[in-house]
Design a protein that fits this description.
The protein is of the alpha/beta class. The chain contains 11 helices and 7 strands. Strands 1-3-2-4-5-6-7 form a 7-stranded mixed beta sheet, sandwiched between helices. The chain starts with 7 loop residues before the first strand and ends with a helix.
């Protein structure tokens, strides 16, 4: 049986054949990319989607996507089904927060589909504070309204006044989740460290750009270590920005991302041009 498709929206470019797929984080929606759309669609075809149970991919509209427990493989396959439906064979992926783990998982499941990865506010490991928060949430998720927990996480991740827009967007979108849906996604948090330990030991060859806010105190340390270990990875730290750096400093985020993706396109094009010259000879 063909699986239900996630809600998705495309912006097609008049001449470019390159696709950029945006993947949001847990509790959010494709609305988080509102400051990226205008800049990216000038250069590329753009695909936005809402993860299962989020945004317009709400439970009532996607019942067949809702088992009792989610896995990163299941949620990653949802995204690949959308690419298959749209006949997108390869794409560049841009993610934020938990969406960065899904992109890494897609790259592991189907590396031939991923041309490059831009991972904003990347989650590569839970440190003591973030692991403690997850443990605390796990203890109280059955007795405490999920929005209380989500607000707590949002304020811990994005505590500064300058991060209020990012924080409020995440809280607003999370209100669309139901309690059961929140629990399904929350259980995924327990799989983060084992999965990322695997990626730590398995070096990717896919071009990778980490974009991290300098004030992303929860996750920037492990990302620095990860970037130093992987030859194919680059790291750019964005000043005056927290975890959701694509909102806090959108212009800088867009410039770094677009420049990086275009550089990878030029690398792909050059060998083909050389092959064409040889054939003409």
């Amino acid at each position: 049986m063909t699986p239900d498709l996630l809600f998705h929206k495309t912006y097609t470019h008049s001449s470019s054949k390159e696709w950029v797929v945006f993947v949001h984080g847990a509790g959010g929606s494709s609305n988080i990319w509102f400051r990226q759309i205008k800049a990216f669609k000038k250069h590329f075809n753009v695909l936005l989607l809402d993860l299962r149970g989020h945004g317009e991919s709400a439970p009532l509209k996607t019942k067949s996507l809702l088992p009792s427990r989610y896995t990163f493989k299941d949620v990653s396959q949802d995204i690949l089904h959308v690419l298959d439906h749209l006949a997108i064979s390869r794409a560049h992926f841009v993610g934020i927060s938990l969406g960065t783990i899904l992109i890494r998982n897609i790259e592991e499941l189907a590396p031939e589909r991923v041309k490059s990865m831009v991972l904003g506010g990347a989650v590569t490991q839970f440190n003591f504070r973030s692991a403690f928060l997850v443990k605390l949430g796990d203890m109280f998720k059955h007795v405490m309204p999920y929005m209380w927990l989500y607000r707590l996480f949002a304020f811990v991740l994005m505590p500064k006044k300058s991060q209020s827009l990012s924080r409020n967007m995440f809280i607003r979108d999370a209100k669309k989740l139901c309690q059961k849906e929140f629990k399904r996604w929350f259980k995924l948090a327990g799989d983060v460290n084992p999965l990322m330990k695997f990626y730590k030991e398995s070096r990717t060859k896919t071009p990778l750009l980490y974009l991290m806010g300098e004030e992303d105190h929860m996750f920037i340390g492990p990302v620095r270590e990860s970037a130093a270990r992987h030859p194919s990875a680059q790291l750019q730290e964005i000043a005056d920005s927290g975890h959701v750096c694509n909102v806090d400093q959108a212009v800088t985020f867009n410039q770094y991302s677009i420049d990086f993706i275009q550089s990878q396109i030029s690398i792909d094009v050059e060998p083909q041009q050389e092959a064409d010259i040889v054939l003409r000879r």
